[in-house]
Fold this sequence. Notes:
Layout: E1 4-7, H1 15-31, E2 35-38, H2 45-53, E3 56-59, E4 70-73, H3 80-88, E5 92-95, H4 99-113, E6 117-121, H5 127-135, E7 140-143, H6 146-151, E8 160-164, H7 170-183, H8 197-209, E9 215-219, H9 225-236, E10 240-244, E11 260-265, H10 271-282, E12 288-291, H11 305-308
Parallel strand pairs: 1-11, 1-12, 2-3, 2-4, 4-5, 6-7, 6-8, 9-10, 9-11
Amino acid sequence: MVKRLVLASPRGYCAGVERAVETVERALELHGAPVYVRKQIVHNAHVVNDLEQRGAVFVENVSEVPPGAVVVFSAHGVAPAVHHSARFRGLRTIDATCPLVSKVHAEARHYARLGYTIFLIGHAGHEEVEGTTGEAPRSILLVESTEQAEAVTPAQTEWLAYLTQTTLSVDDTDEIVRILRRRFPNVEAPEKEDICYATTNRQRAVKSILAAVDLLLVIGSRNSSNSNRLVDVARAGGVEAHLIDDESGIDEAWLEGVESVGVTSGASAPESLVRRVVAWFGERGVSQIEALDGAAEDVFFKLPREVRANAVTRM
């Protein structure tokens, strides 16, 4: 019988997600519905559904956006070809790419200009990887696993660098980097780690509570890379973990023989979903709730200039 909930901290929204969601909200206020969004603005079904109800229209490609309409690019970033296509169609674009993703894009352009071959550590098909690859398609080799790190063969080995997707497992990425450095001792690293502060902090927070819980519930959508990595971190630490969209995804069979349940949420999951999960356990008699202290996060990113006018100043 579950007696206690342990809430990981930090959890939930990161600065990039908050900025992206607020960008769509501000665009709707300034321009009215519909405002088009290429792909999901962030990888969370609840957030997407809420914005749809307010007038956002999510599309897979800018070719689906009527000429002259407003389109927002998601937090995951887009390739230069997408910007070109939007300009060709006469679209009014608002780029909500997370600044930490934009940093990786800039690094890719920098190394490509210098003639480097770039190992991009990430997951094929993820929008962030597609956007970064689009910055230097002839220079980038995607590395998804330790096996690929052992096998990848660049055309030249004198000028090499590696970059990473921002939402990866810190431990898995470190192992891939160790292999690349062993095989290519001169491979250059980005000046500052590409895995974002929020991804790192949330993985550390999960590790910090594993000794105190029998089960971990991670609130996040199936296509959320950083949420899936939190499940991986718990399982690697010997604790069973499940990814749930909200309280409706909890299988009571998971709770058999469990006394202490850890709860966290991915960087694109709103805190309201955590409150709903806590309430679900409260309705079943769980009253002991422990919120652990974690790394303080005070990162803030300005809104894109297209929606910054008339925005309320945040102190």
